[in-house]
Amino acid sequence: MYSSSHLFVVPVQIGHSLHTPSKRTSRVVLVLAIVIGWVAGAGIVWKTSYAAFSTTTTNGPNSLSAGTVVLTNDSSGSFLFSSSNVKPGSTGTTCLNVTYSGTLNTAGVRLYATSLTGGLGTYVTFVIDEGTGATGGAGESCTGFTLGTNLLTGTIASFAAANTNFATGLSSWAPTSAGGTKSYRVTWTIQNNSSAQNLTCGITLTWEADNS
Predict the structure, then answer these.
(1) Using only C-alpha atoms, what is the Rg of the chain?
(2) 16, 68, 82, 93: which could join 102 in a potential S-S bond, CB 3.0 to 4.6 Å?
(3) The model's pTM
(4) Is 38 part of a structural domain of the chain?
(5) How many CA atoms lie within 13 A of 113 on its CB side?
(6) Rounded CA separation 201/123 (Å)
């Protein structure tokens, strides 16, 4: 009885007797062996030439952070002037401080008018001075104000018509990233003109800073 863990191969004769291969057959086998060996060798060469040394270099992570242009005033949200029942000769003077605290140098800070309403502005003399040192604050006090430059002597109406944006705004102040503060003194006076009767006006003063 044979063990089931082994396999035995027994030559079987079918039509011809078993014999030793001829020289011709041996040569053919040899040639085939050489050809097969060459193909296998070529495969090894191709795989070897396909491989390559590799290296990389990186730079990062890269990032960007925008600078700031920050402009504030110390009026605490109150109006520079707000009066009713005014008459010829009525006047008022108030001050506020404008501070630049951005991280970018500026191309300048400009003062201009927006939101003019009513017709009384034609009859209101308007003076704006730029300087330093005003107490300002919620009381809009001009105590300590030192004049630097007179920016405007005209009327509210003429100011609103001529100075409407950064390009046409008043002042040549151009703070850098080191920051800075300017004081602005605003004086209004009602002209002696009967045409001003029963009129009103409203105006918003805007300071704008643009980076350089």
Answers:
(1) 47
(2) 68
(3) 0.73
(4) no
(5) 19
(6) 10
Q: Are 90 and 175 within 8 A, CB to CB?
A: no
List strand residue ranges (DSSP E) for 101-161, in order. 106-118, 124-132, 146-155
Residue 172 backbone phi and psi in degrees, to 5: -120, 10
**Element at 47 (helix H, strand E):** helix 23-50
Whether residue 182 lies inside any domain: the answer is yes
Sign of torsion, CA 36 37 43 45?
Answer: negative
* Residue 23 within a domain: no
What are the backbone dihedrals phi and psi of residue 195, each rounded to the nearest 5 degrees, phi first? Answer: -70, -15
pLDDT tens digits in sequence order for the chain, 212 residues long: 433 333 333 333 334 444 444 444 333 343 444 444 544 555 555 455 557 888 888 898 898 989 999 999 998 777 788 889 999 999 999 999 999 999 999 999 999 999 899 999 999 999 999 999 999 999 999 999 999 999 999 999 999 999 999 999 999 999 999 999 999 999 999 999 999 999 999 999 999 999 99
Give the integer Cα–Cα distance in Å for 126 and 50.
Answer: 85
Domain that holds residue 192: 71-211
In a domain, 62, yes or no: no
Q: Provide the total of helices (H) and of strands (E) in the chain, helices listed first.
A: 2, 7
Rounded Cα–Cα distance for residues 108 and 182 (Å):
12
Q: Which residues contact 145 (CB under 8 A, 6 or more apart)?
A: 95, 129, 131, 132, 133, 134, 183, 185
